[in-house]
Design brief:
The complex is a heterodimer of chains A (224) and B (704). In chain A, a hairpin with a 4-residue loop joins strand 3 and strand 4 (116-124). The two termini of chain A are 28 Å apart. Chain A has a six-stranded antiparallel beta sheet with strand order 1-2-3-4-6-5, covered by helices on one side. Chain A has helices at residues 15-32, 64-73, 82-90, 133-138, 142-149, 176-189, 196-207, 215-219, and strands at 37-40, 47-56, 101-111, 116-124, 156-160, 167-171. Helix content of chain A is 37%, strand content 20%. With 704 residues, chain B is α/β, with parallel strands linked by helices. In chain B, 47% of the residues are buried. At the A-B interface, helix 1, helix 2, helix 3, strand 3 and strand 5 of A face strand 1, helix 1, helix 3, strand 6 and strand 16 of B. The structure holds zinc ion (ZN). Residues 550-551, 553-554, 643-644, 647, 649-650 of chain B line the site of zinc ion (ZN). Zinc ion binds at residues 550-551, 553-554, 643-644, 647, 649-650 of chain B. Chain A: It holds the Pfam family Autophagy_act_C.
């Protein structure tokens, strides 16, 4: 009740603790090869935690991407290499595969203004074109689409990545406290230390298709 | 033997580019390369731990330009040469065969000299030819993964088996630790090529450079290759040049070579190399004459043909497109999260004509932009004066200098600055008004006629007309024209601390005009409220269908143009409370949006204050006829009123005269005193019978 009294289970995280939490998180990820890495921005001490997930999809989903410049493309030479094309089939055989792959990138950044971690993500095709949110969702299970529309996930926006300067989708941190507070308070009541990144990512990750294996909750400790 | 006729087939690399690569290429081109077309060193990587179903990829990220930078853990680096051309022409005309030959020759000489043994990464070179159209953010690219060929192909002696079919558990775990040790001793987390020796008890591996000493005899030569492919019957591309190296080294001395395509994945912490494949083959001499063998490697395009690929990144790189998609996304999220039934397309595609670019016009425009409306047209004849910018949010001090810019044109400029995706246009023109003669000269008549024609044209080209002027009279002509054209009007007017925002009744389409209004209303509104049983005064006017609603002038008992009358609204804009225009402007747009969401649009039955407790007719709620606000009480009411058959703007007789005589009729209205319209509509007569009622008087008189 008293003003100035701060709950021990604070929803805020200073940057140092963020880094420590990330380090522990990354250690476990490395041990199970979950694919998380720390991406350091060249020439600065800033960085973020990153994971890339590739998912094969029906190629029809990605057809749209080619429509736009294909018209202009028709003039591009495709005949120059007929000789080579013959080589490919005659000389040394190559297997033909048709690939449609979606690449999901998840970035965990520290937000100084909110003093909590923020999840950025984008999905792209193998040629680098980012997908619109509709395209992302059209590839998402309907149940989970429904969930995404429900609170507290009504906070998705398109934002420039603060370190990369490229457009990303972001789960706005304004409602993080809402779901972190009960989790942290419960842990506090049970005298249990939790790694903020693990608890937080386990909640926000699945909403945007990011799985956080259960072993993170059991194996990753909180920084001292 | 059937088996001996089996030829080995390879899975080509599939190029994989991260958006960051294109962003970085753009930066490099703009800041560093500029017009420099010389080849640049870049790097990519590939991975052998993919799940089944993923193609073997060569990935380039934003870090690709840092040729000496780190490679992601457990990935193999591949060094490449970037040829970025300045023009599409140069991209097309680049001699691709020469580029491939050049790379192939480098690989071949590294094989011949033995340099490839020391550093086998030379075997995994790639070429990337690009053209970046930075005006359109279109990128054209063509990858090449050079591979030297055996003229006769490669004979399989034993078809691929998965490693677990060929190795015991013991051998597999021995292989794993041998490979891990090799990585550790070479200071990496992935080794692209290695030598292999195994017995039932153990597996030994060694770096490629020990080729000359590792095998005791050439009877059992076995090599391992870090294999990005996931197909059970085929190796990936990197094996190709390694086989050429082996063949060149021992030519026909080898009867058989055993190849392990090493695949190493970890799922949920469980490692597996069991799905690696292993097979035996026979190598022929690739180039008896020491001339570089034929090479292949240009990637097919998405159609499966030999040709370049292209990608349009304007959506994530063009700032204007980014602004548009962000605006759209915010609106869509509103729909997805809060109002699933919202028909955004209807709102966004509505063409809005704003008559008046002053206090109200500015605020209406900004709210329309907030809704994603793209098509906004301003009409105003005023210039921006020093008092305007503080109340009219589209203008700045600078706009007032040297006599002031035209409001209509300055508003357009500002909208485009705020949001380049807007389709805005401005018309610096006057709207002729009743009681304001135009017959001073032929010239003034012609001008008035031209203005009327222009206004008619503009109204016909838009879906919704906003009346946002600061005089009452100037609303008359657009009211008549829009009523005649069956266009929805949203009208906003301000007093000092009061405002009215209303939609004009939308007359029925002409075909059905013949039918009785009563029967039409009962069918369209499904109203079953018998007027006779209603007790509360305001309820008399409940369930009025849109086509029977009144216009701004319907409540008047005098015609516009009467300058003697003391008005509560209009002409006082500049002395209204400053917040009022923002409130009224915003409400005008929100009213329009609600009307658009109603399945019957402008014909929607008017909601009243009483409906606040009922099931709303649209996903956004009520669709009132009028919103009258009283800032002194911080209160709004939602009255509805019927069209008045003696209305000086929307009554049948006025519309008939207008439609029959056109400008002749309008000129009479402009040039005459207000009594002309009052006489025409019968208002004069009525005037004598009834006491004029203040329009603020919310009594039943409103409907007359
Ligand atoms: Zn009227």
């Amino acid at each position: 009740m008293m003003t100035g009294e701060r709950k021990p289970a604070s929803c805020f995280l200073d940057e140092k603790t963020f880094r420590l939490c990330c380090r522990l998180f990354l250690q476990h990820s490395e041990s199970i090869q979950d694919g998380w890495i720390w991406e350091q921005i060249k020439g600065s001490d800033e960085g973020f935690m990153k994971k890339t997930v590739l998912i094969p999809v029906k190629s029809s989903l990605l057809d749209k991407q080619h429509e736009s410049i294909q018209a202009e493309n028709t003039e591009l030479p495709t005949d120059d290499f007929e000789a080579d094309a013959e080589d490919e089939t005659a000389g040394v055989d190559a297997v033909c595969e048709s690939h449609a792959v979606l690449r999901y990138e998840y970035h965990v950044l520290y937000s100084c203004s909110y003093q909590i971690p923020v999840l950025y993500f984008r999905a792209s095709a193998l040629d680098g074109r980012s997908l619109s949110l509709e395209e992302v969702w059209s590839n998402v299970h309907p149940n989970y689409r429904q969930r995404l529309k429900q609170e507290p996930w009504d906070t998705l926006t398109q934002q420039e990545h603060p370190l990369l300067g490229q457009p990303f989708f972001m789960l706005h941190p304004c409602r993080t406290e809402e779901f972190m507070k009960p989790a942290l308070e419960l842990a506090h009541a049970q005298n249990r230390k939790v790694n903020y990144i693990v608890s937080w990512l386990s909640v926000v990750g699945p909403v945007v298709g990011l799985d956080v294996p259960l072993s993170f909750s059991t194996a990753v400790s909180a920084p001292d | 033997m059937a088996e001996s006729s089996l030829k080995l087939q390879f899975a080509p690399f599939c190029s994989a580019l991260e958006a960051g690569f294109w962003h970085q290429l753009t930066q490099k081109k703009l800041n560093e390369y500029r017009l420099d077309e010389s080849p640049k060193n870049i790097k990519g990587y590939y991975y052998n731990g993919d799940a089944v179903g993923l193609p073997a990829r060569l990935t380039l990220e934003f870090s690709a330009f840092d040729a000496d930078g780190p490679t992601p853990a457990r990935c193999c680096p591949a060094s490449g040469t970037l040829y970025n051309t300045n023009t599409l022409e140069a991209f097309k005309s680049t001699d691709k065969k020469a580029l491939l030959d050049k790379a192939a020759n480098e690989i071949w000489s590294a094989i011949q000299s033995g340099a490839a043994l020391e550093d086998s990464s030379i075997l995994n070179k790639f070429i990337l030819l690009t053209f970046a159209d930075l005006k359109k953010y279109h990128f054209y690219y063509w990858f090449c993964f050079p591979a030297l060929c055996f003229v006769e192909g490669i004979q399989l002696l034993r078809a691929p088996l998965s490693l677990e079919q060929h190795f015991s558990d013991k051998q597999i775990s021995s292989l794993q630790s041998a490979y891990d040790n090799l990585c550790a001793s070479s200071g990496t987390t992935a080794v692209p090529h290695f030598l292999l020796k195994y017995s039932e008890e153990s597996v030994e591996v060694a770096p490629l450079k020990e080729l000359n000493s590792f095998f005791p005899d050439l009877k059992r030569v076995a090599v391992g290759v870090y294999d990005p492919c996931t197909l059970p019957q085929h190796p990936g591309w990197p094996l190709r040049n390694l086989l050429v190296l082996l063949a060149k080294k021992w030519a026909s001395q080898l009867d058989v070579v055993e190849v392990l395509c090493f695949r190493d994945r970890t799922l949920q912490g469980v490692r597996s190399v069991q799905h690696s494949i292993i097979f035996q083959l026979r190598l022929s001499d690739p180039a008896p004459s020491a001339v570089c063998p034929k090479s292949v490697g240009w990637e097919k395009n998405t159609k499966g043909a030999m040709g370049p690929r292209s990608v349009n990144l304007s959506e994530c790189m063009d700032p204007k497109r980014l602004a548009e998609s962000s605006v759209d996304l915010n609106l869509k999220l509103m729909r997805w999260r809060l109002v699933p039934a919202l028909d955004l397309e209807k709102v966004v595609s509505t063409r809005c004509l704003l008559l008046g670019a002053g206090t109200l016009g500015c605020n209406v425009a900004r709210t329309l932009m907030g809704w994603g409306v793209r098509h906004i047209t301003f009409v105003d004849n005023a210039k921006i004066s020093y008092s305007n910018p503080v109340r009219q949010p589209l203008y700045e001090f600078e706009d007032c200098l040297s006599g002031g810019k035209s409001k209509a044109l300055a508003a357009v400029d500002r909208l485009k600055k705020i949001f380049p995706g807007v389709n805005a246009e401005g018309f610096n023109m006057s709207i002729p008004m009743p009681g304001h003669p135009v017959n001073f000269s032929d010239l003034t008549v012609a001008q008035a006629q031209q203005d009327v024609e222009q206004l008619k044209k503009l109204i016909s080209e838009h879906d919704v007309v906003f009346l946002l002027m600061d005089t009452r009279e100037s609303r008359w002509l657009p009211t008549v024209i829009a009523a005649s054209q069956r266009k929805l009007i949203v009208n906003a007017a301000l007093g000092f601390d009061t405002f009215v925002v209303m939609r004009h009744g939308l007359k029925k389409p002409r075909e059905s005009e013949e039918s009785s209004p009563m029967s039409a209303s009962s069918s369209s509104s499904s109203s079953n409220t018998p007027a006779a049983t209603v007790t509360a005064g305001s309820s008399l006017f409940s369930n009025i269908p849109g086509h029977r609603l009144g216009c701004y002038f319907c409540n008047d008992v005098v015609a516009p143009g009467d300058s003697t009358r003391d008005r509560t609204l209009d002409q006082q804009c500049t002395v209204s409370r400053p917040g009022l225009a923002m409130i009224a402007g915003a409400l005008a747009v929100e009213l329009m949006v609600s009307v658009l969401q109603h399945p019957e649009g402008g014909y929607a039955v008017a909601s009243s204050s009483d409906d606040r407790m009922n099931e709303p007719p649209t996903s956004l709620g009520l669709v009132p006829h009028q919103i009258r606000g009283f800032l002194s009480r911080f209160d709004n009411v939602l009255p509805a009123s019927l069209a008045f058959d003696k209305c000086t703007a929307c009554s049948p007789i006025v519309l008939e005269n207008y439609e029959r005589e056109g400008f002749q009729f309008l000129a009479k209205v402009f040039n005459s005193s207000h009594s002309f319209l009052e006489d025409l509509t019968g208002l004069t007569l009525l005037h004598q019978e009834t006491q004029a009622a203040e329009i603020w008087d919310m009594s039943d008189d409103e409907s007359i």
